[in-house]
Structure formats: structure tokens, C-alpha cells
What does this fold into?
Amino acid sequence: MTFLLLWSKPLKGFAREESRRREWTGGGPPGGGFLLYLTVNLLLPGKGDTFTINCSGFDQHGVDPAAFQAVFDRKAFRPVVNYSIPTRVNISFTLSAILEVNAQLQLLTSFLWMNLMWDNAFISWNPEECASINKLTVSAENLWLPDIFIVESMDVDRAPPGLTVFVSSEGQMTYDRPVRVTSICNLDIFYFPFDQQNCTFTFSSFLYTVDSILLGMDKEVWEITDTSRNLIQTQGEWELLGINKATPKMLVGSNLYDQIMFYVAIRRRPSLYIINLLVPSGFLVAIDALSFYLPAESETRAPFKITLLLGYNVFLLMMNDLLPATGTPLISVYFALCLSLMVISLLETIFIIHLSHMATTQPPPMPWWLHSLLLNCASPRKCCTTAPGKGNKGFGLTLTHLHGMKKPVELVEKVPGTRGTGLNGCPGSTRVQQEDEAQKQHLVDLWVQFSHMMDTLLFRLYLLFTATSIITVIVLWNT
It folds into this structure.
């Protein structure tokens, strides 16, 4: 068609074309130049099924923008010859930095280098005829770009302006751009600071369905993972564990969109939190446990525990900024248990001091169930065979019910001065007085024994809690 049109032109038109041919070829025989012009004109963009860039604009000094003007004019259209064939866009990225993980807002801020590759059917040239140029860089704003975006992104795309696209002689486009991504991520902070998070980056097209754009992989997932590990810049709180992918389809109404979902697994480095949170807390709990070696009746034991309790509360207030603002992580449960143990220990000390004070005046009666428990703990093979009667509401325990106590007559006979007192004519009153003293002393001994048992049980509870905490930290750190 073009050939017939050129032969039917007037002579003046042919002269203009010949003059233009001489500018392109630097002169030469009219016949040969005309044939070269016909070949180039048949392959100009938009003139046939094959699109070839005019090599007259290529030289060692650069490329004439006019050679790509026809391609630039078509940037609003998807660069395909047949619109029934979808454009395949290959995607890869490099995670170069993990900037922030916001547990309160459930956001992950990272820095990515996105890489997109696709074919542009409007661009092709022969490198041998075009100054041996195989690849060019063209401003991205002059070309058609696929509208690939990250579905989880919660911020405006902040890619820098003035980016370029690498264009090969076969029409393969390579578009690299850096982007700071603030994406939503479902964070699970229960195992803080030993938590691992699995965030997703879903690449998809906003406008084009599967009939127009299909997504593929430019690199294997292991290559993306290795490259990201080698190039990641931040060596702070988070480290990259691995990257996996899935290729689900997204159905919106009657439109089906292609997408690639990358699962990015990251892990928190717990060293900072172990040194600043767990170690000081463990030291305070250990000192509180060692305070059980002080006498239970000591007056300095309660002030010492109160001081530790106040110090622990100040420590929690100072370290509150390091803890997650939302949720209930396991470390918060640990701090609550430590605080509860210290409070229980202080209350137990106050109770023992109160018993010691009561023992000097009038010891309270011990309930029968508590006395039976004390006997079973002290001598597991022995038990109280006789329980106090329901009608006995005074002491709850009579002298004959106390384990190991002798009869009142035997106690009275062995007390010095009993016989002399009996000779004075008051044997009954002396005997009752001795029984009351013996019963009082036995109650004092029981309460002291009970206080020592409480100390022992609470101290063992401290040891069990400390051992469990250490084992839990080691297991979580290793896994």
C-alpha cells in the first residue's frame, strides 16, 4: 500500500522525500536511497503489523527523540498488536530495609525496590543497523506503565519522580523503582519479644483484569530472599526469616484480577528486651526470694519487701515504653505474676508478724481443718484421728485434740513447784493454770510452725516460678 502511494505522488513530493532520504543516508545513488527509504517507511510505527524504530536517529552521540515519537504518542494504550492477547508483567522486588513495625496501628513500614518487566510491541530495532545499541533508557513518563500496586499499602506512593525505563532492542521493558511502603499487617504480639510476624505484599493491577494483564515472576522466591538478606540495610530490631509466595485470583464483582501474594516472615531480635526487661525483673524477684532467709518474726523483713515492691513498680513505669501499647503479650503476664508474688510475700510477712504479736498476748485458736492440714504437711503418714465437735465453738481445738500433747495430769505433775502448791490447799486452781499455760504454749508453737510452713511453701513457689520462667525464655529464644 505504501509503495503504491509513493509512486503516485507528484514530482515535487518525490523531491521532498528524496531530500529527506539524502539527509538520513548522507547522499548516495537515488535508486538505492529510494529503496532504503521504502524499507524504512514500510516498518515505521503504525504502518503495518511490525513496528521498527527508524535507525536514522541512532548514532554514537545519542538518539534522536523523534525516532520514538510515535511510541510516545501511544503511551495511553496498552502496547500490543492484538488486544485479545494479555500483556504478561513479571514482578520481583528486593526488601532493602524494615523501618518500623507499629503494633498499635498494625502497620509495617518497609523500603522496597520493585522490578517490573513486560514487552512493548511498539518498540524494536536492529542493533547492527543502529550503531550497535542494544539497550536504552527512556523517561518513564513517556511510556505506558502497568498500574501494579501493593494491595496492603496504606499510604500514597512516594516513588521519586523522573524515573527511567530500560528498553531493549526486542522491546523488553525493565522498570525499577524504589518505594517506601506502609502496609497493613496482622501482628500477633503474644510472644513478645520472641515474636515472629508474617506480613503480606500483594501485587495486583488496579484497572486491568486477567484479559489484559497476567502477572508472573521475574526471579525465583529463593533468589528474592537471598538478595534481600544480603542487601538489607537495617540491623536493628527486626531480621528477615524468609519469603514465600502464592498466586490467588481476586474476584471483584464480575471482574477477575490476577495477583501475586508474597508472605514475608520477620523475627524480632530479643536481646534488647532481655537485657532491659527480663534481667532486671529477674534480679528483683531473686532478691525478694532471698529475703525468706531472714527470720519470719524479724521487724526488718517487711520494710525490706516494701522497698523491693516500690522499686519493682518504678521499674515497670520506666520500662512501659518498651512494651506494646495494645494486646496482652506473654511478658506482661510474667510481670503481673512477679508483682503478684511480691505482694503475696509481703502480705504473708505481715501476717506472720501479726501472729508473733498475738502469741505474746493471747494466741487465737487454730481451726481444726488448718490443724489437720498442718499435721499432714509436717507428718504425711500421720493424721488427726479426732476432729473437734461441732458444739465446741471456743478454741476449735481442745487440749486433748492437739497431736502429741500429754494429759493435763502428767503436765501438772512434771511442772516444778506443783506439789508444793498443792500442799497449800489449792491443787485444783494450780492444775487449771498449768493446763492453760500448756495449751497456750502449744498454740503458739502451732502458729509458729504454720508460719514456717507458709514461708517454705512460698519460697518453693518462688523457685518453681523462676525455673519455669528461665525454661520458657530459653525455649522461646531457641524456637
About this structure: Residues 427-478 form the longest helix (52 residues). Residues 412 and 431 are 6 Å apart (CA to CA). DSSP finds twelve helices and 13 strands in the chain. The longest strand covers residues 87-102.
